[in-house]
Write a structure and sequence with these properties.
Elements: E1 7-12, H1 16-25, E2 32-38, H2 42-51, E3 59-60, E4 76-79, H3 86-95, E5 99-102, H4 110-123, E6 127-129, H5 137-147, E7 154-164, H6 178-181, H7 190-201, E8 207-213, E9 227-233, E10 239-245, E11 247-258, E12 261-265, E13 276-280, E14 283-287, H8 295-309, H9 317-336, E15 340-341
The structure holds nicotinamide-adenine-dinucleotide.
């Protein structure tokens, strides 16, 4: 592929995820390359540009970002900023006529997600959400097994995504800050469990109930919830129980059970080293469908191909919007103490 055909991507936000996972993955991705950096920290941007062999005229900051519109070396942007900034930066990128890959969660509210989708449509540019598990071999194999009905009819999904966050205040850690992170672990780590329940059932829930916990005397939880647990009921009759927490001993697990067997994944949605056991009556098999860490490069390759060939995106803005609608419904159910009924597009009934 000639450099002209390779999609040039500007990275917006040089934080931990961008530096440690996404930028190194470009080396193994097909059809795209890092074309520019956008950062509020000039010194860091220079150091990162040097490490990636990028000339300094490829560095933008949050003030001169608009100039990127006339930079033909940049076809797309990858937004890797705190969640509360995703919608505004997606709109700026679409105004500059660039395609957008945006980290999960898509945004803070369904209204913001709808704004992003509308901006993408106005610009005629792609919008993809960074749901990396849709490109990870263990989760892909799990989806396949569910489609093949390897467990019989699916009855119960359980997910746990939890860890204990360090002592900090909302001013010190954006993940504890409602304006930047939303309600807490559910949007962040817990979103993996919610997503797994949706891609394993292949359904959208018809009703849900939830509990949240916010110990406000803890400086970490002045603005966000420490814990959320949710029960989803799907049209097929399958039920999912999701637990997520920023204040309990670490766990990353997904299990699915049907009449004929169980699939147990632990860790289920990690960057690397996921594990999976398939149990049926009389058999227990450890499955090793691939190397988990390819997910980052595969996600980038998929985005690049969709941009180059104007192809359908596996994890589009509409998927991000559906999930944020569900998260809003979960918080509403927890606040009201009621079971809420949902339409097929995850909006609330009545
Ligand atoms: P981080 O705190 O390490 O990085 C955030 C970056 O945004 C920093 O470079 C920071 O300087 C910059 N920034 C700009 N304006 C800011 C502001 N007002 N407040 C705070 N920071 C600001 O965070 P991260 O872990 O890299 O997360 C960034 C995004 O990536 C989030 O959307 C997060 O949900 C997502 N993420 C996804 C995964 C995944 O597995 N898909 C993993 C981690 C993070």
């Amino acid at each position: 592929m000639s450099p002209d055909e390779s999609v040039g991507v500007a990275i917006i936000g040089l934080g931990r995820y961008a530096l440690a996972q996404i930028m190194p993955a470009f080396a193994a991705a097909r059809g795209c390359h890092i074309a520019a950096l956008v950062s509020g920290n000039a010194g860091k941007a220079k150091r990162v540009a040097a490490a990636y062999g990028l000339d300094e005229d490829r560095i933008y900051n949050y003030e001169n970002f608009g100039d990127i519109a006339s930079d033909d070396r940049v076809d797309a942007v990858y937004i890797i900023l705190p969640t509360g900034l995703h919608a505004d930066w997606a709109e700026k990128a679409f105004a500059a006529e660039k395609h957008v890959l945006c980290e999960k969660p898509m945004a803070l509210s369904a209204t913001e997600c709808e704004r992003m989708i509308a901006a993408s449509e106005r610009a005629g540019r792609k919008l993809m959400i960074g749901y990396r598990c849709h490109f990870e071999p263990y989760n892909l194999r799990a989806m396949e097994l569910m489609r093949e009905k390897a467990l019989g009819d699916l009855r119960l999904i359980r997910t746990a995504h939890q860890y204990r966050t360090g002592m900090a205040t909302p001013a010190e850690n954006w993940r504890l800050n409602r304006a930047l992170a939303g309600g807490g672990p559910l949007e962040d780590y817990g979103l993996y469990g919610l997503q797994a329940s949706l891609y394993l059932t292949g359904e959208t829930p018809e009703s849900l109930s939830a509990y949240t916990l916010q110990p406000k005397n803890d400086p970490r939880f002045q603005e966000i919830f420490a814990h959320a647990s949710t029960q989803l009921r799907f049209p097929s009759g399958a039920v999912a129980q999701l637990a997520t927490s920023y204040d309990s001993f670490g766990m990353n697990a997904v299990s699915a059970r049907g009449a004929k067997g169980a699939l147990v994944m632990e860790p289920a949605t990690s960057y690397s080293g996921n594990a999976m056991v398939l149990q049926t009556y009389g058999a227990r098999e450890t499955l090793t469908p691939g190397t988990s860490s390819v997910q980052f490069a595969q996600q980038l390759s998929h985005f690049a191909k969709a941009v180059r060939e104007n192809a359908v995106i596996r994890t589009p803005g509409e998927m991000g919007l559906r999930d944020i609608r569900l998260i809003e419904a979960i918080y509403k159910a927890a606040a009201s103490g009621r079971t809420l009924a949902l339409n097929a597009d995850a909006t609330l009934k009545d």
